[in-house]
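User: New here, please read:
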Amino acid sequence: MLKLSLGPVLWFWSRQTVLDFYANAADWPVDTVYLGETVCARRRELKLADWLEIAGVLKDAGKQVVLSTQTLIESEADLRLLRRICSQQDYLIEANDQSALQLASTNSLPFVTGPGLNIYNVATLKVLAKLGLKGWSLPVELGRETLIELIAELRAEGLDLPAEVFAWGFLPLAWSSRCFTARHYNLPKDNCEFRCLQHPDGLELRSREAQELFRLNGTSTLSGARYDLLRELPDMVAMGVDTVRLSPEHQGMAEVVQRFDQVRRGEIPYSDPLTVREAPPCNGYWYGQPGMDQRA
């Protein structure tokens, strides 16, 4: 059966909000849970020890736990934390930059790759497989035609590398050394007053025509429309996708997980739309179109 994963929390939430979220997630029908801070090193509501404690609870609940690494490494302090993550042997890691790839391979630590890594061909996957790759995520800007080709080539090469597809949530598009949320409030990055806490699902950025273009999230920029591939699940099963990723949001995730679980089990028609608050849907990248487009 198609697996469901819960991606790392991309937003900055309070400590108690995070703890409550994962306490609830322990009972959700997801197979894999990604844990850790992937966006900004200044988000210190939880330490590594806290993430490992959450990991233990989720593991006891029957989930596969993966520790996610920061996407943009900017300092020696970031590297020290990354070294600590890559020195443990209890959990897979999700490598989100080249530093994590190097440390994981050096420490003989199995890893998977996140959607932020540029994996566009089987040659790259073959190199990573030799370093310890156990699974990979399709970059969010790629679509079904590319994925079909990659899966076919992997099978021809005899490589068993499960593919994961980002299927729900605001698409992580770019990362920067600048903090756009701090800039919005005319604050320096190093004294941002943690304003991201005021925007648990990002800060909306609209065009002059009031179109939702992006969501600002500290040093990362996400899509303004919410990616939704619920109706494409049967297509993914047919092509051999192993896992679909659901990106956490501040509200409504229990409903999202339930609906994806029902569709993958064939309990409800896959064409039933999933209606959630605030953001318009999009699926353009999946069909080789502009990402913000919604194909009926």
Summary: Residues 48-60 form the longest helix (13 residues).
